[in-house]
Amino acid sequence: MAELQEMATLLQQGNVNAVKTLTQRLLDNGVSAQTILNDGLIAGMTVVGEQMRCGEMYLPEVLQSASVMHAAMSILKPHLLSGGVQPIGRVVLGTVKGDMHDIGKNLVGIMLQGAGFEIADLGINTPPEKFVEAIRQHQPKLVGLSAMLTTTMLVMKKTIEVINASEVRSQVKIIIGGAPITQRFAGEIGADGFAKDAVSAVDKVKELLAISN
Ligand code: B12
Q1: Domains of the chain
Q2: What does the pLDDT read at residue 86?
Q3: pTM above 0.85?
């Protein structure tokens, strides 16, 4: 759809107002929030990533595109959440220490919330000990770790080691995700599961917690 391509381009250009207006217009015209997210916003962000890698886009511009994504996601959020669901479990979610990326983690949180989970979001740059404290405090059934950098994948490993060494490990399942993360890496570092995106994260979390659909 031409408008979704336009949205992807406007996101790359960092045009917050135009993307907000277009998001609302597409919703009003009956386009689903999931389609706007996948074919407009995430498609645009994928190109931003490619341009960043080959040096065609610099950090301030990428940050501006991230603000566009945040603004549009706040419009889409109520549409991604189905109303009136009873909480079916609590999840602690955070981006590991040294990593400032939160768009993907936030999306996972929104989709899990939509599926009926309560989310305790620890934000970005979360030290391993803070995950352990949060498990003690919130008593979740599951913890989700996000990492977007090859360097912070190692911090993810460390985070799981610290959780493993604490008394809380037996009470939670651990799921990991982020662009460089693979199922194989999850197995290597002792995570219970991995999901490649926010939609499959919901299925994986339900599978790990033996919750039927
Ligand atoms: C936006 C962005 C930024 C923004 C982040 C803003 C924010 N608030 O998040 C800013 C400008 C701050 C940034 C900074 C940097 N970035 Co950056 N960034 C990106 C970019 C373009 C998009 C990421 C994104 O939001 N994608 C959209 C979301 C929806 O997708 P996602 O994050 O992958 O999340 C999905 C899945 O991964 C999964 N998922 C994610 N988390 C979790 C957690 C769980 C539990 C589960 C189950 C699933 C899951 O589900 C999500 C939803 O479907 C990527 C490129 C890319 N395409 O990934 C580079 C990228 C990740 N960044 C990169 C780099 C190098 C950096 C910097 C080091 C640059 C620099 N020189 O300073 C810094 C690092 C800062 C830091 N310490 O973290 C590299 C990483 C390379 C590498 N292999 O390590 C990438 C890949 C760009 C590139 N091609 O080179 N970045």
Answers
A1: 2-80 (1.10.1240.10), 89-208 (3.40.50.280)
A2: 65
A3: yes
